[in-house]
Amino acid sequence: MLFANRRLTGNAESDIRAHLSKTCGIPEVSIMLCGLEQLESWLKTFPDVPSLAGLDPIDSPLIVSPDDLSEVVQALARHMDGVAATLDVSPTPRTPYETKNKINNMSAEYAKTLRRLYLKETAQVKTFLAAPGNTELLQMYESVVEEFQLKIIAKRKDYQSFDEVMNYLFDLLFARDPLLRANKRLTRVMLFYMYWNCDIGEGDDAATY
After folding, report:
1. CA distances from 208 to 42, 47, 81, 203, 205 (A)
2. Are 185 and 125 in contact (CB under 8 A)?
3. Burial class of 180 by CB neighbour count within 10 A (0 to 12, 13 to 18, 19+)
4. DSSP secondary structure, 142-181, as one string
């Protein structure tokens, strides 16, 4: 039995089983692959298992799924490959950046560094997600930010700065997904875009847009 922290999409299961069978000399019928979708199905069928195992989701750390973000980052990487210098234009944040940083307890130095490193790419991210042919990717992005925002709200400790939250998300995503790990800069760009665009983190609802 082989357990993975990823979903078995497309022909992945049959391809992996065939490879393991050929490499290890094990009949394919003797190989069991278990991806996230199977684990989720079992947990829904046997809802008492987490408590029997002493797993309390309320006390668990901030864990987010990298799957949809990985799809978006891969597509964005293909789109940006060979593209000329990025325009020095960026989406207007719904809440002024300095105001948002104070609300979310992000240090001025960290915020300034993020802005210097990744601001220029945000224009391309916005254009890419808004392209008519990228509707499915936009839906994936929206699914990602919804999950991230809800998990951050629920799991962020009162004493944590948003610097810590961002670094934790970077480390978690890189550790859990090899495709994001191979595209570290674009992954950081995407998370900065989420924050800059007020998709994650608290905003000033009273701000004038």
Report:
1. 47, 45, 37, 12, 8
2. no
3. buried
4. HHHHHHHHHHHHHH--TT--HHHHHHHHHHHHHHH-HHHH
The burial of 16, by beta-carbon neighbours within 10 Å (0-12 exposed, 13-18 middle, 19 or more buried), is given as middle
Tens digit of pLDDT for each residue in 58-81? Answer: 556 778 888 889 999 999 998 876
Residues 50 and 56 sit within 8 Å (Cβ to Cβ): yes
Measured between alpha carbons, how far is 46 from 171 in angstroms, rounded to an integer? 31
Question: pLDDT tens-digit profile of 164-173?
Answer: 999 999 999 9
Q: Within 10 Å of residue 48's Cβ, how many Cβ atoms?
A: 8
